[in-house]
Amino acid sequence: MNRKNRKSSITTSAPGILFLLALLLAASPSGGQAPGQLCGSATVWDEVPDFISITAPADIEVWTLAPGIVNLRSGTLKVDASGPWAATVRDEDPRTSGRLTKYDGGTGTYDIGVKLHSPLVISASSDGGNEVVLSPVGQEIISGVATAEGGRDVRIDFKQPVGWNDLGLENGSSYRLVVTFTGSLIV
After folding, report:
1. Whether residue 76 is found in the same domain as residue 28
2. Does residue 87 register a pLDDT over 60?
3. Residue 55 has pLDDT above 70, yes or no
């Protein structure tokens, strides 16, 4: 069923014919039509507005990173869309700019002088999407056609290289950034 526009004629169903007949008989001048004769038709448009809904991966908050390797964490992006769509990612905060940055949980502040050397890499390539280096600019990670009812699950991989020269942090501090997922319909 096309969720965008559905055109149906009242004259195709028995209740619709009865309604149309009652309407025509009440509105037509006497003697213009024989009883039961249709003299017109009515069209009803049932329009469902375009929509997109995305739910970002939820299970990526507590992540212990090891030096000397590319650390991998996966999650699920849920997409539900009425038409062709695209999902982008970006780091909106200019203090972090795609790099995990030291964050003091006690004061709620970033220390912008302490960042991991390599930016976070985000990928939807296992589902036919792209792999991108996180930055302040929105980059498309995946696109698709209208989803079936209930939406589509897309595997998202977060890859964080950590070098031996990246600074280990004291208790109470962590590396942090915010990844913004944006879904949009393609016109």
Report:
1. no
2. yes
3. yes
Q: What is the DSSP string of 61-114?
A: SS----TTEEEEEEEEEEEEESS-EEEEEE---TTTTTS-EEEETTTTEEEEEE
pLDDT at 32: 53
Higher pLDDT, 127 or 48: 127
Residue 68: which CATH number?
A: 2.60.40.1090
Q: Ranked by mean pLDDT, which of 37-41, 72-76, 169-173 comes out on top? A: 72-76
| Total-model pTM | 0.72
96 and 15 in a common domain: no
Counting the structural domains of the chain, the total is 2
Asked whether 182 and 90 are in contact (CB, 8 A), the reply is: yes
For residue 121, give the nearest of 113, 112, 130 by alpha carbon: 130
Q: Phi, psi (5° rounding) for residue 175?
A: -90, 140
CA distance 82 to 103: 39
Query: How far is the C-alpha of 30 from the C-alpha of 35, rounded, in Å?
Result: 10
Percent of the chain with pLDDT over 70: 74
Same domain, 59 and 114: yes
Same domain? For 151 and 83 the reply is yes
Among residues 117, 101, 96, 114, which one has the least CA distance to residue 180?
A: 96
The SS3 call for residue 186 is coil
